[in-house]
Design goal:
The complex is a heterodimer. In chain A, helix 5 (115-126) crosses helix 6 (131-144), helix 16 (409-420) crosses helix 17 and helix 16 (409-420) packs parallel to helix 18 (456-468). In chain A, a hairpin with a 2-residue loop joins strand 10 (230-235) and strand 11. In chain A, the strands form 4 sheets. In chain A, strands 7-8-9-3-10-11 form a 6-stranded mixed beta sheet, sandwiched between helices. In chain A, strands 17-18-19-14-20-21 form a 6-stranded mixed beta sheet, with helices on both faces. In chain A, strands 1, 2, 4, 5 and 6 form a 5-stranded antiparallel beta sheet that branches. Among the domains of chain A are: 1-89 and 215-253, Rossmann fold (3-Layer(aba) Sandwich), CATH 3.40.50.300; 255-287, no CATH class; 339-348 and 379-555, P-loop containing nucleotide triphosphate hydrolases (Rossmann fold). Helix content of chain A is 36%, strand content 25%. The model of chain A has no long low-confidence stretch (mean pLDDT 86). Chain A starts with a helix and ends in an 11-residue tail after the last helix. By secondary structure, chain A is of the alpha/beta class. In chain B, 69% of the residues lie in helices and 3% in strands. The relative contact order of chain B is 0.13. Chain B has a two-stranded parallel ribbon. Chain B has 14 helices and 2 strands. Chain B has a domain at 31-46 and 140-325: MetI-like fold (Orthogonal Bundle), CATH 1.10.3720. Classes of the chains: A alpha/beta, B mainly alpha. Chain A binds chain B through residues 357, 360, 362, 386, 389-390, 393-394, 396-398, 400-408, 415-416, 419-420, 427, 430-431, 434, 444-445, 447-450, 452-453, 463, 466, 470, and chain B through 1-2, 5, 8-9, 12-13, 16-19, 240-242, 244-252, 255, 259-260, 263-264, 347, 351-353.
Chain lengths: 566, 353
């Protein structure tokens, strides 16, 4: 009986990567878990935890030239070990009985074939269907995954669909052959929060209807609370905790699990500092309780930055001579109080990044005013703008792209000081740079290193230090923590908070992550299609949203584990 | 305090592998690449020695008989040397007495006296030279070394000129876009729409002869390829976040172009530079072969090949062989070195970004 209950049994899986001739790296160190029939198992871990590598090993998709699956590893499926199975029979299983969807739907779909062609290919390959049959079936699965007008959409090319629809097509392709197991590797990470909710609901629904099992891989523990039956928490290639979902969320045993649950900002609480993993590891999972931080503006704060009717149009070429204006930002007005944080939330395409760039004149606004201490920045010449440039700074989303790879960290920090004449000479500037590296928690050894030697979180600290060299009054954080792991995210958020307390900087905090914005912001501004939907103190907006769109956005936030009503 | 800082800086300096050092390490692991480096360096040393006058200073001396045989083929028939020897032998035969009708007859005595006063040193011309001799009996090996000096110098200088032009034009066009881009694209189109050799010949006809002219011609006509690549790189990089970050900290356009972006595209320039060196060495040869190259009093591989055209008909192959072989070895080694350099510098292959 137990044999039949488990669809896949993974035993002592070990994967080793060859880095070069001499060095190897153990990505997965003896992982064992089961995927029962008709159940959702969530594999949760941060980057480098080995979760995706484990899934690739199950699928037999690891690159054979660099990855070795060590002796003694077994992946038992229907009485057979998938790791020793010959290539041909593995290919029959792959795509038919076990299928997979990936994080980036756009890069997973072939851009030169219609979605119908791509689904039909799978069907004809694995099910031996004829052309007409396959097409009929493709339309059927497209309607099953909730694509509107499937008869028309079957002829669409991937770029004609939205991100959410692309992911639905990927899912349609994966379930077309009625697989027993669907492996979903971060299927919603690249999607907006409202779309993420729809995809999660679709997956839960399909699992119910198709009686299949789902292996759901994600870095976000809160996400799996609603859909997972069983949760496996991985860190550094090892399983830290493996338990039913209810237990993981209500009685987490391992400190790491507890840390993952607590690191993420929550909507209902706002501690002075976010707990970080070290706190849990050091105190056996019981960090001291903290005071709540009060947020919000009262109305008598000094205003440092004010935008009035800020607009940005992009002209898109249409036809041979025609132009079409695309309004990325439409008459948005707001004020930023000194020492306070204004959160900008919205889905992709809502214009939040455009506003950030326009405030700094990194792109030219089409209309409106940006008043910085009463001076309209948009009217200044480049020369006149220079002293203001120093005072408004920005930290970008991608810590891998925003640092010049050919500069040492020292050069990166000294350059803005040279440009703005801060510090008397190189020695004074170096001294300040060393001090700032200490302040952001990197240490002096970082000075002569290059950006590629640092992790994502550390690079974001370098970017923060670069801004601090100019002692700005306003710091724009454009999705600055979105690319980071949950635990690293907490550390960087704490750093930003400390710096605000210390230097009384004003922040404009741009993010699609509503929980992070709630934690960081005094005021929140909700944007939709370039228009301001609602702006209020952050507690008010989350407790009592006035607009329908805000309500929809808030209801899409993953709720974590919701215990069944007793 | 500052002493402490400096000491930490010193300590950490060596343990940090920058992109350049990592590239050099990869290059060192490439065995073929290293062999090519050794060959190229050997050529450079020879060129340097020749430029300083340490070797081949006397390449212009006529030390052998006309078309002296190579040392390893001493018994080859040398009709040209024979005939010139016969010519001198014949002149020793006493002339027929024509004094009654010869208007110069009264002056012969005086002329003979003056001739006797001029010292003539009879050079002992050798019949064979290590790798043979040319028409005037010059040593082919020395000539090849001297020719290498000019050819390689021309190749490098012209490639450098082309790289500078291509980089500056490409950076401006790619970075600024708009009207400036249109202007450079227009110039580029004009230059590339004319057949290459025709363009070179047109410039050569206008400028006249000389080494500087050759360098100018090759540089001015050869920047287009580098320009095209650099423009594309700048188009790509100006949208990168680190350039936007530089804008945010207030860096000027020039600073963004040449301090921020240039180090990130320098591998393209370096590879293009070395590819153009090869191309221009060959182009100099073609120019000289066609008679538009270096002046006659100098020697380059191109002029050697031009001479070889007539020699080959009478079976004197050594000048051609020496020039082609030395050029082929250098060009091959340099090309392979360029390949190795590109592999080592390619940011896509390395785990740096």
């Amino acid at each position: 009986m137990t044999e039949q209950q488990n669809l896949i049994e993974i035993r002592d899986l070990r994967v080793r990567f060859r880095l070069d001739q001499t060095q190897t790296f153990d990505a997965v160190k003896g992982v064992s878990f089961d995927i029962p029939n008709h159940a959702t198992v969530a594999l949760v871990g941060e980057s480098g935890s080995g979760k995706s590598v484990s899934a690739m090993a199950i699928m037999g998709l690891l690159p054979p030239e660099s990855a070795m699956i060590l002796e003694g590893s077994r992946v038992m499926y229907a009485g057979r070990d998938l790791l020793t199975e010959p290539r041909e029979s593995l290919q029959r299983i792959r795509g038919k009985e076990i299928s997979m969807i990936f994080q980036e739907p756009m890069t997973s779909l072939n851009p030169v074939f219609t979605v119908g062609d791509q689904i039909c290919e799978v069907l004809r390959l694995h099910m031996g269907l004829g052309r007409a049959q396959a097409r009929a079936r493709a339309i059927e699965v497209l309607s099953e995954v909730g694509i509107p007008e499937p008869q028309l959409r079957v002829n669409s090319y991937p770029h004609q669909l939205s991100g959410g629809q692309q992911q639905r097509v990927m899912i349609a392709m994966a379930i077309a052959c009625e697989p027993k197991l669907l492996i979903a590797d971060e299927p919603t990470t690249a999607l907006d929060v409202t779309i993420q909710r729809q995809i999660l609901e679709l997956l839960a629904d399909l699992k119910q209807r198709r009686h299949m099992s789902v292996l759901f891989i994600t870095h976000d523990l809160a996400l799996v609370g609603e859909i997972a039956d069983h949760v496996v928490v991985m860190q550094e290639g090892e399983i830290r905790e493996s338990a039913p979902a209810a237990e993981i969320f209500q009685r987490p045993r391992h400190p790491y699990t507890r840390a993952l649950l607590e690191c993420r900002p929550r909507l209902d609480r706002r501690p002075q500092r976010l707990p970080v993993i070290d706190d849990f590891m050091r105190t056996e999972g019981k960090p001291a309780g903290q005071q709540e931080r009060k947020r919000g503006v009262t109305g008598d704060d000094a205003i440092i930055l004010e935008a009035r009717n800020l607009s940005k149009e992009f002209r898109l070429r249409e036809g041979l001579f025609g132009h079409k204006a695309f309004r990325a930002v439409e008459r948005v007005s707001f004020t930023l109080a000194k020492g306070k944080t204004l959160g900008l939330v919205g889905e992709s395409g809502s214009g939040k990044t455009t506003i950030g760039l326009a405030l700094m004149r990194l792109i030219d606004a089409s209309g409106g005013e940006v008043l910085f201490e009463g001076t309209d920045l948009l009217k200044l010449s480049r020369r006149e703008l220079m002293p203001y440039k120093r005072r408004i700074q920005i930290i970008f989303q991608n810590p891998y792209a925003s640092l010049n790879p050919r500069f040492t960290v020292g050069n990166i920090l000294i350059e803005p000081m040279q440009i703005h004449g801060i510090g008397a000479d190189l020695a004074a500037r170096s001294k300040l740079a060393y001090a700032l590296l200490d302040r952001v928690g990197l240490g002096r050894v970082a000075f002569n290193k290059y950006p590629h030697e640092f992790s994502g979180g550390q690079r974001q600290r370098i970017a923060i230090a670069r801004c601090l060299t100019m002692k700005p009054d306003v710091l724009i954080c454009d999705e600055s923590v979105s690319a980071l792991d949950v635990s690293i995210q907490a550390q960087v958020l704490n750093l930003l908070q400390d710096l605000q307390d210390e230097f009384r900087m004003s922040y404009i905090f741009i993010s699609h992550d509503l929980a992070v914005v709630k934690y960081m912001s005094d005021q929140v501004m909700v944007l939709h299609d370039g228009k301001l939907v609602e702006m209020a103190n952050s507690d008010d907006i989350y407790l009592a949203p006035k607009q329908e769109y805000t309500r929809r956005l808030l209801s899409a936030i993953p709720r974590g584990f919701v215990p069944a009503a007793a | 305090m500052s002493a402490v800082i400096e000491s930490t800086a010193e300590e950490t300096r060596h343990d940090s592998a920058g992109p350049w050092r990592a590239a050099f390490r990869r290059l060192r692991n490439d065995r073929l690449g290293m062999v090519c480096v050794v060959i190229v360096v050997a050529y450079m040393l020879i060129v340097l020695a020749s430029a300083l006058g340490l070797v081949a200073r006397d390449w212009n001396r006529e030390v052998g008989v006309s078309y002296a045989n190579p040392g390893f083929l001493p018994h080859l028939e040398n009709l040209e040397a024979e005939s010139s020897r016969n010519l001198t032998a014949q002149s020793k035969v006493p002339p027929v007495d024509l004094s009654d009708i010869d208007p110069l007859a009264p002056y012969y005595k005086e002329l003979d006296e003056r001739t006797a006063r001029i010292k003539v040193t009879e050079i002992q011309r050798s019949d064979t030279l290590p790798f043979g001799g040319d028409k005037w009996g010059k040593d082919i090996i020395k000539k090849t070394v001297k020719g290498a000096e000019i050819s390689i110098f021309v190749g490098f200088a012209a490639a450098l000129l082309a790289a500078v032009l291509g980089t500056v034009f490409g950076a401006c066009a790619g970075y600024f876009g708009g009207r400036i881009n249109d202007l450079f694209e227009w110039i580029y189109n004009v230059f590339t729409s004319i057949p290459y050799i025709l363009l070179i010949l047109a410039f050569a006809a206008v400028f006249g002869k000389g080494i500087v002219t050759v360098i100018m011609i090759l540089g001015i006509t050869g920047w287009t390829g580098i320009y095209r690549l650099l423009r594309a790189e700048y188009l790509k990089h100006r949208e990168r976040e680190y350039v936007r970050a530089a804008d945010a900290i207030g860096a000027s356009d020039m600073r963004r172009m040449f301090v921020q972006i240039l180090p990130n595209v320098s591998h393209v320039i370096l590879v293009q530079l070395s590819q153009h060196v090869v191309q221009f060495i060959k182009a100099e040869v073609i120019l000289s072969f066609l008679g538009f190259g270096v002046p006659v009093e100098l020697v380059s591989w191109g002029t050697m090949l031009a001479e070889a055209q007539n020699e080959l008909v009478i079976g004197k192959w050594w000048q051609l062989a020496a020039a082609t072989a030395s050029m082929a070895v250098l060009v091959t080694a340099f090309s392979l070195f360029t390949d190795a350099l590109r592999d080592a510098l390619d940011p896509k292959l390395k785990a740096l970004l």
